[in-house]
Amino acid sequence: MDEITIEGVLLSPLKKIEHPKGDIFHGMKKSDKGFSGFGEAYFSTINHNDTKPWKKHFQMTLNFVVPVGEIRFVIYDDRVGSKTKDHFFDVTLGKNNYQRITIPPGLWVAFNGVGEVYNLLLNLANLEHDPNEIERKEALSEISYLW
């Protein structure tokens, strides 16, 4: 299991049940650690070698699952008073590491498409999208990290 280096971030192993007519990929149950209510679920794709720059939610808890392809996530903690302030956490999720990552509010996250064909992200968020509760960095370089 990956060593989590940021306070509040969770990695939860998920079941993948192989079936000859199509596999089943577990995502989240309301009894799971990290579940903090349901606001919306959405899918997002990211192309191979593309990176979506930093964003931080002020109230939303993110629960990312990668059922297809592979996506590298980097999380940065700049929260005042956090035990892990100025720490980064870097993890690649997908077929070789099928887990759900829970990212609490107040942390920066950026991600990169690692899989060569198609990379699909599912977010099971506790709130509906609200453009007023998110901050974005226009450039990846605005937070110094060696990708």
Tell me briefly what this model is:
This protein is mainly β. It has strands spanning 10-13, 16-17, 24-25, 40-45, 51-57, 62-68, 70-77, 88-94, 99-103, 107-113, 120-125, 134-136. It has a single domain, classed as Jelly Rolls.
Please describe the topology of this protein.
Layout: E1 10-13, E2 16-17, E3 24-25, E4 40-45, E5 51-57, E6 62-68, E7 70-77, E8 88-94, E9 99-103, E10 107-113, E11 120-125, E12 134-136
Antiparallel strand pairs: 1-9, 2-3, 4-11, 5-10, 5-12, 6-9, 6-11, 7-8, 7-10
What does this structure look like?
The protein contains no helices and twelve strands. It has a five-stranded antiparallel beta sheet, with no helix packed on it. The protein has a five-stranded antiparallel beta sheet with strand order 8-7-10-5-12, with no helix packed on it. The chain is 0% helix and 44% strand. The protein starts with 9 loop residues before the first strand and ends in an 11-residue tail after the last strand. The chain has one domain: Jelly Rolls. It is mostly beta strands.
For the record, what CATH class applies?
A: Mainly Beta
Largest sheet: 5 strands, antiparallel
Number of domains: 1
CATH level-two architecture: Sandwich
Fraction of residues in H or I helices: under 10%
Q: Write down the Rg.
A: 15 Å
List low-confidence stretches.
Answer: none
CATH topology: Jelly Rolls
Percentage of residues in DSSP E strands = 35-45%
Distance separating the two termini? 21 Å
SS class = mainly beta
DSSP strand tally:
12
Order of adjacent strands in the largest pleated sheet: 1-9-6-11-4
Determine the number of helices (DSSP H or I, runs of at least 4 residues).
0
Mean pLDDT: 95
* Secondary-structure element series: EEEEEEEEEEEE
At the fourth level of CATH, the homologous superfamily is Jelly Rolls
Rough shape? Answer: globular
